[in-house]
Specification:
The protein is an alpha+beta fold. It is built from three helices and six strands, in the order H-E-H-E-H-E-E-E-E. The strands form two sheets. Strands 1-2-6-3 form a four-stranded antiparallel beta sheet, sandwiched between helices. Strands 4-5 form a two-stranded antiparallel sheet. Strand 4 and strand 5 form a beta hairpin. The longest helix is centred in the middle third of the chain and has 12 residues. The protein is globular, with a radius of gyration of 15 Å.
């Protein structure tokens, strides 16, 4: 896969309370991905970028909330998340800590 395409597909990790719980309990990592990314592309991008073995990918499309602002109604951006299940013994450490 083209290195430029990897960074177009994977937009970054999704850090939240739920993502942390999923990472600890079920060996999964959550990424924000582009709208046109497919499951095989996401799997290949994660395997090449982090040098891990991926066993499965689930995708969630989250619709942006409508919020009231001073100027009327506004809308947050839609987000596409990928829950990537890693093979036993594989680990991705975003903090680079111990």
């Amino acid at each position: 896969m083209n290195p430029g395409r990897i960074y177009q597909i994977l937009m970054g990790p999704h850090i939240s309370e739920k993502a942390t719980i999923v990472a600890e309990d079920s060996q999964q990592v959550v990424f924000r991905v582009s709208k046109d990314a497919t499951k095989p592309e996401i799997k290949q991008a994660v395997e090449e970028l982090f040098d891990v073995k991926v066993t499965g990918v689930n995708i969630v499309n989250v619709k942006g909330k409508t919020k009231r602002t001073m100027r009327g109604l506004g809308k947050r951006n839609d987000v596409r998340k990928a829950y990537v299940r890693l093979a036993e013994g594989s680990e991705i450490d975003f903090l680079g800590g111990e």
